[in-house]
Write a structure and sequence with these properties.
With 223 residues, the chain is of the alpha+beta class. It has a single domain, classed as Pseudouridine synthase, CATH 3.30.2350.10. The protein has four helices and eleven strands. Strands 1, 2, 3, 4, 5, 6, 7, 8, 9, 10 and 11 form an eleven-stranded mixed sheet that branches. 30% of the residues are buried.
Length: 223
């Protein structure tokens, strides 16, 4: 079910479950269609999206003017996003930056190149947990399938993301964990740990909170 995490006059923050498309697929409503069904009196404007396999936080605007402003903020990288992911394969490097051009590949996939056209930049930290690898990721760009491709490129495809070579699981283990931005002069900060999935259990959430404190992380600056 789609849950509303925060409401104000300009935007809402909603929590999307894994397996729900952003736009409708066949007879199944997507995020925008379901919002309209649940709140028919309200007008919604999409400002960014999450892949079907991804759960977590998503902003929707309630006014056209707000949607335009959010579009500018995303374009200028003024919205800080964090994702968490889980892989059952050891990465080539434990932390760092994945940078490369994104180009279409076969069967609806994307792949990284050494070029700078359609550049995707993803920073990450990781830690071992119960025989798997937990990733905290900071995308500096917003390309299609960016995080999924980045983790595949370092040898750690997301657990459950079979499109990109991940092993089968009860879900794709990628979650939009936090959003932070300025709105009308006030800082907005939203965070929601994942709670759906056999591996996204209470032990995982405790590990996440104790090992990835934002204040203690030294992210590289710029792209």
């Amino acid at each position: 079910m789609l849950n509303v995490v925060y409401k104000c006059d300009d935007f809402w923050v909603v929590s999307k479950p894994a397996g729900m498309s952003f736009h409708a697929e066949s007879e199944a409503p997507g995020v925008m269609q379901l919002l309209k069904l649940l709140y028919p009196e309200q007008t919604f404007y999409p400002v960014h999206r999450l892949d079907k396999v991804t759960s977590g936080l998503l902003v929707v605007a309630l006014k056209h003017s707000a949607a335009v402003l959010f579009g500018e903020m995303f374009e200028k990288h003024q919205i800080e996003k964090r994702y968490v992911a889980l892989s059952n394969r050891k990465p080539k490097k434990k932390q760092g930056t994945v940078r490369g051009g994104m180009v279409p590949s076969r069967r609806g996939q994307w792949r990284l190149t050494k070029e700078t056209e359609n550049l995707a930049v993803t920073q990450f930290f990781s830690a071992a947990f119960n025989g798997k690898r937990v990733f905290l990721l900071r995308p500096l760009t917003g390309k299609t399938h960016q995080i999924r491709v980045a983790l595949k490129s370092i040898g750690s495809p997301i657990f459950g993301d079979e499109r990109y070579g991940g092993d089968s699981a009860d879900r794709g283990y990628l979650h939009a964990y936090s959003l932070a931005f300025m709105w009308q002069g006030r800082g907005q900060n939203f965070k929601q740990a994942p709670d759906i999935g056999m591996c996204f259990n209470s032990e995982f959430r405790e590990f996440l909170e104790s090992n990835f404190q934002e204040a203690s992380l030294k992210w590289p600056s710029g792209q």
